Amino acid sequence: MRTGVFVCWCGLNIGGVVDVARVVREVSGWPGVAFAQDYRYMCSDPGQQLIRDAVKRERLDSVVVAACSPAMHEATFQAVAESAGLNPYRCEIANIREQCSWPHQDEPDRATDKAVELVRASFEKVRGDEPLVPLSVPVTRRALVVGAGIAGMQAALDIADAGHEVVLVERLPYIGGHMAQLSETFPTLDCSQCILTPKTSEVGRHPLIKLITNSEIESVSGYVGNFSVRIRRRATYVNWDVCTGCGVCSEKCPSRTLSSFERGHAEEPAIAIAFPQAVPHKPVIHAEACRHFTKGKCGICEKVCPVGAVDFGQCDVLLEEKVGAIVVATGYDLYPKAQVGEYGYGVYPDVIDGLEFERLNSASGPTQGEIRRPSDGKVPKEVVFIQCVGSRDQEKGYPYCSKICCMYTAKHARLYKHKVPDGQPYVFYMDIRAGGKGYEEFVQQATDEGVLYLRGRVARVFQDGDSLAVFGVDTLSGKKVEIRADMVVLATAIVPASGARELARALKAATDQYGFFSEAHPKLRPVESLTRGVYIAGCAQAPKDIPDTVTQAGSAAAKVLALFSAERLAHAPTVAAVDEELCSGCGVCVDACPYDARTLDDRRRVAVVNEVLCEGCGACVVACPGGATRQRNSARSQMLSMVDAVVG
Amino acid sequence: MGYAYFPGCTLRGKARGFEKSALASARVLGIHLEELPEWQCCGATFPLQADNSFPLVSPARALASASKMGGRLVTLCSACYNVLKRTNHVMRTDADRRDKVNSFIEADYEGEVEVRHFLEVLRDDVGFETLARRATGSLADLAAAPYYGCLLLRPHDELAFDDPESPHILEDFLAALGCRVVDYPYKIECCGSYVALEPGEPASEPSRKVVESAKARGAQVIVTSCPLCQYNLDASQQGAGGRAARGVPVVYFTQLLALALGLPEDVLALENHLISPAPLVRSVRSMGSEVTA
Q: What's the distance, Cα to Cα, between the start and end of chain A in Å?
């Protein structure tokens, strides 16, 4: 054995507490240590070169680097060892920063003793390390994108434009997401449909995008580069392959149901295309409203369809797709109505949310773009906008800021003022958060156009005759305010789309306490999930506006393309292995494995390891009653000698 | 249906009608209320200082004694309910304060009692549908405005009584009795609490707003479960301009219950009201049929 030990000062982080020189002195005396040296910043280029030179000069066969956590620089030093001609798995890290100098700043002597022990433990480990070779797996260069709002469409287009096939799955019958419901967008007030429809039609006709709408992810198995996805395509009761989208069925349908696209402010036939620009331009039968399904009669659509596309017997279909990467772009929902009792949300017809206002303001919406309130169709002359409903509310809502409400409320108030010049919009706000290019100017213009901003909360909204009494406070003047409003618009909090948690479970991806998908690092890895091969874009990760969503979607696509740039992927070889002589085939390891990497070979009656699925957590090693499972480079003998080094 | 029962001080003083009407109604409805032996004042307000556990002693003693009587404790007064339930929450969740209080009262109480308001008993055990069947119909079309105040609803995390922003238990109760429920914006606003007892106009303003808002929407009577709210709303209508003559009586929900069940007038103990409900009660009783308790 010729091991080299390299002790890092990390400036004063380690060197200010641990007596690095003493560590080097003590270590040098151990049999098997051929070389030991300290350096101020071992991760720097000269530090790395120092290791490389020593490996060659001293003919070292293994390396221990005493430095920061292996989470920071294990990969760096493994690469250094490899470039010097060593097997990278014969390089071990002793963490003498997070686990020594930082927590023991008050006791430098004992910290130094502990540093020596930690180095000893890593030294004992490296003696037993096998020279492993990384596993290599093929990559299926085909992506799945879940959700076809602006985030999912952008990611799908970017990946497909680079030449890779994309399976784009959308829960609704049409693509475009919430952006399709918006009337205008901030800060330029350009029409949402006008900037969206070029994207939806491009997605619809792109030869490399396989669009699967009215569908949900049923289950996901496999691992990075090799996922297998089961998709449930719910019955539309219309054979889309032959349907021409002519619309005769909708015209003749005698049943009506509330349109969810119009947020319940308009009716649509039981067989309908959600909106004129919908892609795919094909109808769906809403079974719960259809006479054929509810009463067993009717069938008019079936009779009038010129191509015989209506198919009442259609069933859900399960589709299997093989992909190498997954982008989650499941978007958002709005804060539930039942939780805003103080504003009569869901009780008073003229208390609406922001998306409902978008529909009232949309040229293709229920009022053809005229601002008319839902209860009686009157043009409202006093409109109160309330921001932060459910957001920034520790007590009964969510503590986070929903980020887009300041801007869209300013937009709503301005659009209202443009259409009803003699009307008065009021905005109750907590702070105006208009950080973004052109955003502050946009809000400023709102006040210039006569939008009255009141800094304070609204305590209660109450239906009084045909108007709404709004009780609030203006904290700048310190006065209570009571406004008789004709309509109230709530900027309700953005919450994760329903089903996001279930999807996260299927993907084994983490979510935060609210159900938003967690990124691998909040600053440095914002589009990767903690599960390799799974990426996040848009409001699935956190509330964000369209520009940020498009940026993130492009970034997620770039990550997917980087993954697809190689034909094979490397996987760490420090995984579980089975001694088949000792294995009794009891199957305890199968239950212990959180990654589905352990299975039983029924024919040979032994347990096996799917090395590519194995993350090397060691759960099965501990669980195995016969000691048949071991973990490569964390063998029992290595562990015991490490423990001896520390406590012996 | 058997419960340990905590009356509270005010119900033996100014709010006698609250208790008498409740006990008489409970008898008719088959709810057995057994008064806690040797109960003491609940303290009237829940202490907000986290390090002051002494005010928890009295309510904790009541809870510990209720745990020996079947574990279900009922109160009528909103303030008692608030203090008892919040104290129980502390005894359930805060081991340090629990140990301190237990060692003082020489008990081993861990919050196992279920504290319930009489309205909850009516809703969950009797059922408002049953109540509607038992009601004589004498309150038909009586315009009644529910008034919750604060103590019954907040803090929601600890009380979990009803939706603190849009409660409906009183409305459901009044509707079961046959009343026409008056909705108005001030039903969960504060009456001014102890501040209203200070002399002067500003102190009584919150109460006046409640009454005026209910009155403007046609309320013939305001219904509450808190003696302090009852007093404040009642008193705010007195004085300047002789408004008492046109005042709206403020009654306890149990008084309407007894009335709806056709119980005799003496169980209502109407003498403690400033705006007398007597004329209203008489006109109601002339419509209904009387049964004996």
A: 22
Q: Which residue out of A337, A396, A460, A482 would a mutagenesis test of the B interface target, given it has the greatest number of B Cβ atoms within 10 Å?
A: A460
Residue A563's CB is within 10 A of a number of other CB atoms, namely: 19
Pairing of strands A209-212, A271-272: unpaired
Q: Which residue of A has its CA nearest to B185?
A: A462
Burial zone of A375 (CB within 10 Å; 0-12 exposed, 13-18 middle, 19+ buried): middle
Q: What domain range is A582 assigned to? A: 575-631
Please identify among residues 183-202 of chain B the ones whose CB lies closer than 8 Å to any CB of chain A.
184-185
B165 to A469: CB separation less than 8 angstroms, yes or no? no
A68 with A54: CB under 8 angstroms? no
Scanning every residue of chain A, which has its alpha carbon at the shortest distance from the alpha carbon of B162? Answer: A341
> How many structural domains compose chain A?
5
Domain B128-285 has what CATH class? alpha beta
Contact A17, A111 (CB under 8 A): yes
- Straight-line distance from the first to the last Cα atom of chain B, in angstroms, rounded to the nearest whole number: 18
Q: What is the per-residue DSSP string for B238-289?
A: SSGGGGGGGPPPEEEHHHHHHHHTT--GGGG-GGG-SS--HHHHHHHHTTS-
Write down the H helix ranges in A239-369.
Answer: 248-252, 291-295, 300-304, 354-361
- Decide if the complex's ipTM is over 0.90: no
Smallest CA–CA distance, residue B236 to chain A, in Å, is: 21
Tell me: the pLDDT tens digits for A417-462?
Answer: 999 999 999 999 999 999 999 999 999 999 999 999 999 999 999 9
Residues of chain B with CATH 1.20.1050.140: 2-117
Beta strands in A475-546, from DSSP E residues, in sequence order: 479-485, 487-492, 494-496, 534-536
Helix (H, G, I), strand (E, B) or coil at A13: helix
Closest CA to B251 of B157, B146, B167: B146
H/E stretch holding A426 reads strand A424-429
Q: For the segment A166-180, what is each residue's pLDDT rounded down to a tens digit?
A: 999 999 999 999 999
Q: Are residues A479 and A516 in the same domain?
A: no
CA A469 to chain B, closest CA, distance in angstroms equals 8
Instruction: Report d(CA B187, CA B168) in Å as an integer.
Output: 11
The topology (CATH level 3) of B2-117 is Glutathione S-transferase Yfyf (Class Pi); Chain A, domain 2 (1.20.1050)
Q: Do B184 and A462 touch (CB under 8 A)?
A: yes
Does the distance separating the beta carbons of B165 and A340 come in below 8 Å?
A: yes
Closest A-chain CA to B163: A341
- Cβ contacts below 8 Å, chain A against chain B, sum to 16
Residues from A in contact with B at Cβ < 8 Å: 340-342, 344, 347, 396, 460, 462, 464, 469, 471
> What are the pLDDT tens digits along chain B (293 aa)?
789 999 999 999 999 999 999 999 999 999 999 999 989 999 999 999 988 999 999 999 999 999 999 999 999 999 999 999 999 999 999 999 999 999 999 999 999 999 999 999 999 999 999 999 999 888 988 999 999 999 999 999 999 999 998 899 999 999 999 999 999 999 999 999 988 888 877 888 899 999 999 999 999 999 999 999 999 999 999 764 444 457 999 999 999 999 999 999 999 999 889 999 999 998 887 765 544 43
What strand order describes the sheet that includes A62-67? A33-39, A3-8, A62-67, A91-95
Task: Specify the amino acid at residue A475.
Answer: T
Whether residue B166 and residue A344 make contact (CB cut-off 8 A), yes or no, is yes
Looking at beta carbons, which residues of chain B come within 8 Å of A469?
185
Which residues of chain B form CATH 3.40.50.11810? Answer: 128-285
Last residue of a domain, one of A66, A101, A128: A128
Of A5, A31, A11, A25, the C-alpha closest to A112 is: A25
Pick B165's closest partner by Cβ from A342, A464, A469.
A342
